[in-house]
Amino acid sequence: MPWEQILTWSFVVGLLTAGIRLAVPVLLAVLGEIISERSGVMNLGLEGVMLVGGLSGFIVAYQLEQAGISGADWFGLFAGLSGGAIMGLLMAVLAVRFKTDQVVTGVTLVLLGQGLTSFVFRKFSALSGTRVKGLEAWAIPGLSKIPVIGDILFNHNAIVYLTVILVILCSVFLFRTNWGLALRAVGENPAAAETSGLNVNRIRTLAVMVGSAFAGFGGAVLTVVQLNIFTEGIIAGRGWIAIALVFFSRWQPIWGLVGAVLFGVADALQYRIQAFGLRDLPYEFLLMLPYVLTLLVLLRGTVRSDTPAALGVPYFKGKR
Length: 320
Known about the structure:
The chain is an all-alpha fold. The protein is built from 13 helices and two strands.
């Protein structure tokens, strides 16, 4: 058993570097769900939204690459973001406009995403097994040369840096701007928010669309930037994990970052241990490692509840 190879500094650095990269798609979905749930709408359809974003992003990136158009990856990422926003609009129409049960609507969105992507992917059978180029790593000049830290933090593709910036922007938006205050007011007490002149349904609709756009973007990052391929079920439960991490984060973007990185490191660990071919550890045990960790971090969310008071509760205009 090559434990000597595992218990080395280079292994730890490689593990943390890969963990940060693998955390990005989940973290984007976490940020989106925090925005949606802060407005009072629980979108359980993230798994389906990420699938639609992943497929739409991959198809656009692949087709543009074949046409020789530069920047195909970025167009693919934008397509994934747009696909997610469209799924969010569907969720908003059902849950906000027609007041359907948010749990049932979210699960329906998952089934829709799975069925829709399977149908489209099989329809375009030429996509099976094809790959896109993806983005190259961009080492930040100077910082990437710092021993250890440079390799872990400053030698990633542009999407990793962009995601960190989005975490900061989401925190500022939610807790330092009037728009963020309005969003949180709608999620805490929609009746009082309406009395103060806020349009509750409009804010919730926008929040769900923006949140789903984040999730669709995360799906596209997975297929276009990280794996460079699309297969049915490629999201592999990341949408559900994102929902669990929102509870872990207590609706705070910074804690969402922490939870996503923990998941990413666990995911990277199981890949790397498998690569070493350790026969003492069952393959199935390694596969479930990230999901077991997710269950454990959920315990943090049960210690103290910061749940938005109106989360999951449909709002009827004028109702007190």
